[in-house]
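Morning run. Coffee first, then this:
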Amino acid sequence: MKPRNREINIFNMSLLDILCGALGAFCFMMLTLFPYYTKAKQQQGGASAGEVGSLQQQLEQAKKRIEELDHQFAVAVQIWWGTPLAVHVYLWRPANPPQPEPTLEKKNDTWISKDRKTTCYGGPCSETWLIHDLSRGNQVKVYYVLADTKNDPAPALVTGRILSAPSDLEIPKVMLDAQHRIVLVGTMLRTNDDKLAFTPAAPGSQTAAPQFPVQPQRQIPPRIRETPERRR
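And here it is:
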């Protein structure tokens, strides 16, 4: 009886046949799908170029915005008072359509776009009017309006300050009462060299601020020490 051959051979003709068939199928699939792969890469490259163009456009817009902010001249006028009265600040400047003058019949709100203000209906309190961008040579009239005198018949002493990037300016103190409810405090101007100037209203004019008298300081005599002779 002939003995069986128990030797195991892995790489035989059957295995080589399977491997060659698989390799041929893979090559066929690659050749078939290669055009679609090229189109996908081209589309991806086009999308990347579009994104780069969009980012460049956004960068240019950001640069223009920074230049605009550098040329802007923002000004804020802040007032405060210590009595329980409703006092408002009103900034008037030339506009189209014309900005109305301050009045007691209605609320004096902002007229020009991008201007902002806070409103306080009773003191002690403070108000602020912000001008987004003040043009060169544009004069702004600063008004104080005493809107309500019911809470306290006593006059209100109003203190003001103009805040800007170049410098801060003090506004003269103004006394508001029942006879002076709408008061022109002065005018401010942005000069050609980008500085802020404030001119108080002329005393004696109909809309000028009333003169606030300065109380003289009382002289206190020095204390005299008592001596034994003075006691006698």
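Strands lie at 75-81, 86-92, 116-117, 125-131, 139-148, 156-164, 169-176, 182-190, 196-200. Good start to the day.
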